[in-house]
Amino acid sequence: MLLRYIILMAIMVNVSFQRIFSPQDALKCGSDRQFQTHFKPQLKQLSSEVRQIIEHIISPTNAGATYESLAYFVDKFGPRMAGTKQLEDSIDFMLDWLKKDGHDNVHGENVTIPKWNRGTEWAMMVKPRVKNLSILGLGYSVGTNGKTLEAPIMVVKSFDELDRRANEVKGKIVVYNFDFVSYGISVRYRSKGASHAAKYGAIAALIRSVTPFSINSPHTGTNSYDVNVTKIPAVSITVEDAQLFQRFTDRKEEVIVRLYSENNLEKEKAISRNTVSEIIGSKYPNQVVLVSGHLDSWDVGQGAMDDGGGAFISWRALSVVKQLGLKPKRTLRSVLWTAEEFGLIGAYEYARRHKNEMKDFVLAMESDIGTFAPVGITYSGTNLTSQCVIHEIMKMMAPINATRLSISTEGSDTEAFAENGVPITSLDTANEKYFYFHHSQGDTMTVENRDDLDKCLALWTSVSYALAALDLPIPW
User: Fold this and answer.
1) By its UniProt entry, which InterPro entries does this protein fall under (predicted)?
2) If you ran DSSP here, which 8-state letter would residue 474 be given?
């Protein structure tokens, strides 16, 4: 499960997998009989309701409401790592909130999850001078077994360099100072770096944070151990310290580091919950349009960007539909996933439990790449008629300048649905700075913008409602 998650995350953030729905594609819609006959007239009728949704959200009366709600939530609970009381308390709070907001069928669905703990951890350079290091142990990493490790470091820029210098590794702490290319390419050092170093006899791995920009802050994330390879501590260090180590070693100066960590994975599992609510469809209640984000986060920052914003625009989309008295024909369902950061665990458990219902899902929508200024959405479906339908809906997003449709298979939690044949959609935003804050202390409400959140909510509500309100489901 964890390896699959790492691969999916690499795909999700590699924009080369996307293809913009072009004007040439749009021309084909003119000759698509099913689109022209069945869907376009309905969409024209729905355009007034979509306009009503957008105007309601960005009106002076309601502007900033999503920001204020999210701020209240993340300020109250802070980071919400899977397996912690903070997450479970926040789920209880959210369930009560959804009921008060008038959602239907509000409930939690239990999910068995691993319980990894971040204990006391510290590191320092003791030669050629003394310097405290800012670190974050990686998820699933072991600790130092009650000992303080002290050893010379060995800096490498790639797995290839490590392989070439394998005979130098034994007894050392390996430092990965890779050049950041993209998250999808560079994340492999975080996920597999410890095991790659351990097979040559390293006693720990210090991995440069996977980010294109740093202000001396480490970024955490998951680590995955290979089978039959000794588990050694896997720790994220700052870009600045990785480069410092590189400069020292380039000058042929020996660097010695001390490392202590009480991080551990408990033998006993924990129970968490996916948070579910609905607006039951008036005509086709068994057909579902899903909107989602994940409620858990890492244990640093506030989890506002990753993925508080995505979770909040998902459940608030249903609230807006309720407030406006709109009646979708299909069920609008919001699911706020648990344990996404530990390997998409909540989403895959949901898909397993609801496997027999997958044929009735029209679309699975997910927001987990930041709620910055929206530019549009991505869509995985290959059917031209369905692409034309969504393209037509996106044209209605002109008031918020978010009309782009990209054909893409990107997704993380929704991959559990894609594997069952359900088309998936991701919010597409101007998220160039997403990895500046990702999995770090910098993921706070300061990253969020009131107007951008309103626009994201307007898009998310409009698309999900329009697809739930059509007479016919879009074809797969």
Assistant:
1) CPQ, PA_domain, Peptidase_M28
2) P
Q: What's the pLDDT score for residue 268?
A: 96
**Separation CA 319–CA 101 (nearest Å):** 6
Q: Chain-wide mean pLDDT for the chain?
A: 96
Helix, strand, or coil (residue 328): coil
Distance (Å, rounded) from C-alpha 73 to C-alpha 67? 10
Pairwise CA distance, residues 405 & 427, whole Å: 10
- Backbone region of residue 236 per phi and psi (left: phi > 0; alpha: psi in -120 to 50; beta: other values): beta
Whole-angstrom Cα distance, residue 136 to residue 218? 6
340 is catalytic: yes
pTM to 2 decimals?
0.95
Beta bridge partners of 206: 175, 235
* CATH number of the 2-115+268-469 domain: 3.40.630.10
Helix intervals (H) in 289-334? 309-323
Phi-psi region of 46 (alpha: psi -120 to 50; beta: other; left: phi over 0): alpha
pLDDT surpasses 70 at 16: no
| Segment 218-247, tens digit of pLDDT | 999 999 999 999 999 999 999 999 999 999
Extents of the domains making up the chain: 2-115+268-469, 116-265
C-alpha 409: how far from chain center: 15
Of 88, 121, 278, 340, the catalytic one is: 340
From residue 24, give the alpha-carbon distance in Å to each of 20, 27, 388, 392: 10, 5, 12, 14
Per residue in 137-183, pLDDT tens?
Answer: 999 999 999 999 999 999 999 999 999 999 999 999 999 999 999 99
Under 8 Å between Cβ of 73 and 249: no
SS3 429: strand
Distance CA 59, CA 71 (A): 20
φ/ψ of residue 142, rounded to 5: -80, 165
Q: Fold identical between 2-115+268-469 and 116-265?
A: no
Which pLDDT tens digit goes with each residue over 435-461? 999 999 999 999 999 999 999 999 999
CA atoms within 13 A on the CB side of 195: 15
Domain 116-265 indexed as CATH 3.50.30.30: yes
Tokens read off for 283? 């005509």
